[in-house]
Every structure is written in structure tokens, then in C-alpha cells.
Design goal:
Length: 452
């Protein structure tokens, strides 16, 4: 144990003294209330006459009893130990989080509503994220992590993890039950408070909407290697049909094995599971009438036949995902570090951001997604870079690809960060005549972030 400075000693004495008084130690009295010193034996009598030799000494007053003076040192030590234990527990409690306020501008004057009538949230000020995270590590064998998100859209539970922790084989084993990020890829596990770009790439928004699921996770970390494996309900919290549930009682299994060096990291990930298509009730055929000319008269050209639908049972269908992620940091002379990162993933039937369901157990949609990014530091406070984000939800179709190129400029100092990003969206959409044209849906975003 290192030597304490005078300031540390005085601070400790004050804290321990205050705690002792609060804990009820009677001997914790102020120094200026101590008993006065006894009078000298030769003190003259009243009127200045000296005491006669051989005269009986006056009876002395009973000695003042100082409360707590007879208390054993072990009692004080016990109270100090109690205080130390309480302080140690409090040291295991950590609060953190961040707030992201932003302005989003649509560059092509997009409509305020999309095709489904939902707000497009363009040309708007908003609070994108307002996170409060509580972590408790006050005991060596257990951990708790709880995170909420408060935004202009409302409140949401983001994480709720209860973990058992143990040292095994020279590493750390953590067994977690609760709500947590699905352990696949790099960007899913990357904190939104650390990620320089506004949002995760679109493949993850489609495959694991909300990033999180409920289940059991095993995490083992030793030196340069770490492994995460999870068994989850299989319906992420951002999924459209059954978020956070398991309607077909078929769990997803996902995992990532990673290597982390000083300037290089890599990971291999995968996910397997079963989706579910609900049953279909039989429906008789019918005819609908659309009064095209408004004359209230029925004509043959205004009638449309609706064919009958046969009943169909519910069924499960497989989904899977596999891929790699790589990252490398390169020091650039004069400027600073440059960080390059890439993720490549291939899967089948993984799109859960829509109400996607195969029509039969043998139908499948193969999908491909990747992200490429580069960030370059310019001195201590400035970072510039760009990202290429690609997602193809159906490799058998030639017109479904989504491609975004996003340059950014980031200014950061201590807990503050300003990010400016322009999303050049190169998606294609049907113009209503069967011709696929560019959507022209570029977006500029300016964001302030403060972490605590």
C-alpha cells in the first residue's frame, strides 16, 4: 500500500470521524469539550493565604467520566469496518449515459408522410437518444446492468441484465439472463454513444431491428480472445409482428468469436433460428365494386372478383446468418490514427424489420449486406470519414438493393461531440409504371452529443 499524503490523511480522518458520529460511537466527541486540567496542589487559598502545613487536603471533586473513554479499540475498528464495507458497496455503483439532440433535413423536399401514411421525420428537431445506464459491480461474483432511453418519442427499456461472474481458466466467465444485444457482428455490439455514424447500417436494421432480444447469454473473455453465445426468443424488440416473444417455441442461437489486438480486431459470427407463419382462415370468394365514374350505377368494368382463400396451417421456416468483421488502426504521420473497418454478412429469411413471412416452408429469400467505413483523425479534436452501406433483401431480384454513401465530419472534445453527416441514398423504387428509378431521398443530419 502506497504512502498517503497529508491531504488524504486529513480527508480520511474527517470522513471516518463523521461516519463514526452517524453510526453512534459515543466517544466521537469534539476535542474542545475535553475535561479541564486539574488545579495545581499549591494553589493559594481564598484571600491569598497559603494552606497550612499538615492541614487536611480539601476533598477533591469526583473525576469527570468521559463517555466512550473505556470503550475497547476493537469496537471502533468494528465500526470502521462497517463503514468501509458500506463505502465499498457504493463504489460498485456506476451511472453513465449520453444525450443526442439533432436536426434532420431532407435534401429533396420529401413528403411529410410516407406511402403508408406514417411521418417521415424529415426537417425536424428531435432527441434521438437520451440514455441512462446503471451498472452495479459491488460484489466479485455478480453484476447488474440496467439502461433506459428517454426521447421525444417516449420512454423505452433498452437493457436489463442480471449476470453471474466467475474467474475460470485464466479468464472471466459471465452468465447473463435478461434483455441484451444479440451477439452478432461488430456494429450491433458497438454502443450508439461511441459509433461515429448516425445509425447502424441498414442490414442490421432489417435483420435485428432494435438490436436486442430476451434470453440467456454466455460470455468468456481471456487475454486477446472473447466468445459470446446466446439463446434468445428469436423475435427482437424491434420486430414488427411479435417483438420480444417466442410464439413458435423455437429459440434463436447466435454467437461471435473475436480476436482483439492493439491495432487489429476480427470476429466471426452466426445465427440460426426458426421463423413462424401464422395460420390462415378459409375465406369465400367475393366481388367488389368501385364506382369509377361516380354515377352510382354498376357497370361490369367497375366489378372486381376476389378469389377464395383456402385454409392453411401455421408452419415454421428456417433462417440463418453468417459473416465476418474486421478492423485495423493505422497511424498516419502528422495527422493521427486512421481506422478502417468492414463487415460482410450473408443470410436467408432474416429480414424482420417488415412483416416478412414466407408463403410456404420451402420458400426462402437469400440476402447480402456489408458495411465499409474509414475514419481519419486530424489532430486531437477533428475526425473525418465516410461509410458505404449496402443491403440486398432478395438476391433473386435485380431492383431491391439499398445503397448509402455517408461522409461525415466530427468535432469532439472531452464529453462533447458534434457530428455532421450527409446520407447520399442510392436506392431504387418503382415509379408506378414498373420502372425502377432512384428514390432521391438524401438526408443531412447535425447532432450534438454529451456523455456523462
Amino acid at each position: 500500500m502506497g504512502m498517503r499524503t497529508g491531504g488524504e490523511t486529513r480527508t480520511s480522518a474527517i470522513l471516518l470521524g463523521t461516519a463514526a458520529i452517524l453510526l453512534g460511537w459515543p466517544g466521537a466527541a469534539r476535542a474542545d469539550t475535553a475535561a479541564p486540567a486539574p488545579a495545581p496542589a499549591s494553589m493559594p487559598a481564598a484571600g491569598g493565604a497559603a494552606a497550612l502545613p499538615g492541614a487536611a487536603a480539601p476533598a477533591s471533586a469526583p473525576a469527570e467520566v468521559i463517555p466512550g473513554a473505556a470503550e475497547e479499540p476493537s469496537a471502533l475498528e468494528k465500526k470502521i469496518d462497517e463503514l468501509t464495507a458500506a463505502v465499498t458497496k457504493m463504489k460498485g455503483l456506476h451511472l453513465s449515459g449520453y444525450v443526442q439532440g439533432q436536426l434532420v433535413l431532407a435534401m429533396q423536399g420529401a413528403s411529410a408522410l410516407d406511402a403508408a401514411g406514417a411521418p417521415t421525420e424529415k426537417d425536424i428537431f428531435s432527441v434521438r437518444r437520451g440514455r441512462l445506464k446503471v451498472t452495479y459491480t459491488g460484489v466479485a461474483w455478480a453484476e447488474l446492468m440496467f439502461q433506459i432511453d428517454a426521447t421525444t418519442k417516449g420512454f423505452a427499456l433498452k437493457d436489463a441484465e442480471a449476470s453471474y461472474v466467475s474467474k475460470i481458466g485464466g479468464g472471466t466467465l459471465k452468465l447473463t439472463l435478461g434483455l441484451f444485444k444479440t451477439p452478432v457482428g461488430f456494429e450491433i455490439l458497438e454502443s450508439s454513444g461511441d459509433r461515429p455514424f448516425m445509425e447502424r447500417s441498414r442490414m442490421w436494421g432489417a435483420w435485428i431491428p432494435g438490436e436486442r432480444d430476451v434470453g440467456l447469454r454466455v460470455f468468456y473473455d481471456r487475454d486477446l480472445f472473447n466468445v459470446r453465445v446466446a439463446v434468445t426468443n428469436g423475435e427482437p424488440v424491434g420486430e414488427k409482428s411479435f417483438p420480444g416473444l417466442d410464439v413458435n417455441r423455437a429459440k434463436d442461437i447466435s454467437g461471435r468469436a473475436g480476436l482483439h489486438l492493439k491495432r487489429f480486431d476480427a470476429g466471426v459470427s452466426g445465427l440460426v433460428g426458426w421463423g413462424w407463419t401464422p395460420p390462415v382462415a378459409a375465406r369465400a370468394g367475393s366481388v367488389t365494386w368501385d364506382d369509377l365514374n361516380g354515377d352510382t350505377a354498376v357497370t361490369p368494368d367497375e366489378l372486381t372478383g376476389v378469389p377464395p382463400v383456402a385454409a392453411a396451417d401455421a408452419f415454421n421456416w428456417p433462417r440463418w446468418l453468417a459473416g465476418v468483421d474486421l478492423g485495423v488502426t493505422v497511424p498516419v504521420p502528422v495527422l493521427g490514427d486512421g481506422v478502417a473497418r468492414a463487415e460482410f454478412f450473408y443470410g436467408s429469411n432474416m429480414d424482420r424489420a417488415t412483416a416478412f413471412r414466407p408463403s410456404d416452408a420451402n420458400e426462402s429469400f437469400n440476402q447480402l449486406g456489408f458495411e465499409l467505413r474509414y475514419l481519419q483523425s486530424f489532430g486531437k479534436w477533428i475526425v473525418g470519414g465516410a461509410r458505404v452501406d449496402y443491403y440486398d433483401p432478395d438476391l433473386s431480384s435485380a431492383n431491391d438493393q439499398a445503397l448509402t454513401i455517408a461522409p461525415l465530419l466530427m468535432l469532439q472534445r472531452d464529453a462533447f461531440r458534434l457530428v455532421l453527416e450527409y446520407d447520399l441514398v442510392l436506392d431504387k423504387a418503382d415509379d408506378g409504371t414498373g420502372t425502377f428509378v432512384e428514390k432521391k431521398d438524401d438526408v443531412f443530419t447535425a447532432r450534438f452529443q454529451v456523455k456523462y
